[in-house]
Amino acid sequence: MFNRLKALLDAGRREEAWEGCLQYVLDNTAAVRSWLGSDAFPGVEFILRDHFFNSGSRNTGKILQRALNVHGAGLVVDGIPGKQTRQMLKTVLAQTGESEFLSTLNERRKSFYHSCKQFPVFGKGWLNRCGDAFSVAQELV
Predict the structure, then answer these.
(1) Most distant CA atoms of the chain, gap in Å
(2) What percent of the chain has pLDDT over 70?
(3) Residue 78: per-residue pLDDT
(4) Percent of the chain topping pLDDT 90
(5) Quick one: the chain helix, strand, coil %, rounded to 5?
(6) Cα-based torsion angle of the residue sequence 104, 29, 51, 16 in order, rounded to the nearest 10 degrees
(7) Chain centre distance of CA 98
(8) Quick check: 135 and 102 in contact, CB under 8 A?
(9) At a CB cut-off of 8 Å and minimum separation 6, what does 81 contact?
């Protein structure tokens, strides 16, 4: 993929390269859509996809489960968004609305970064990314 994108950039085909980058991210974060079950919550989907791409499936599953637990879900935090997690996601979104749950998800994401042993080195950048992603997600709601 890198070689393909580099070749497009070298050929001056920036728009095609950008589209290729976007498709790569979508393809590699497709599991998030299955957790939500639809495209009805674009802000939540954006935050989850962004975290998934940067921190992996298991860590994203954990921040999702922790956010759901803030709203009383009572889930085991194992990082695997199985049937119970997906059902609770639908329930909590219906009860709280996307905007409120998005805020909770953002707080859990920041807590995750604070818990990382590399936080003293990379934390400022991670939190900046969280803030930027949260702003974009809010615009989607």
Answers:
(1) 53
(2) 100
(3) 98
(4) 98
(5) 80, 0, 20
(6) -120
(7) 14
(8) no
(9) 35, 61, 64, 65, 89
Q: Report the distance separating Cα 101 and Cα 99, nearest Å.
A: 6
The owner of tokens 């070749």 is 7
Global pTM reads 0.90
For residues 20 and 16, give the distance between their C-alpha atoms in angstroms, rounded to a whole number: 6
User: Which residues lie closer than 8 Å to 86 by C-beta, 6 or more apart?
Assistant: 34, 35, 36, 37
**Which pair of tokens denotes residue 88?**
């609770």
Those residues of the chain that have pLDDT short of 70 are: none
The residue whose two tokens read 């639908």 is 90
DSSP 8-state symbol, 52: H
Q: What angle do CA 127, 123, 26 make, to 5 degrees?
A: 55
Kindly state the tokens that stand for 124. 């400022």
* Residue 132 structure tokens: 């930027």
Tokens representing 76 are 């085991």
Distance, CA of 138 to CA of 46 (rounded, Å): 10
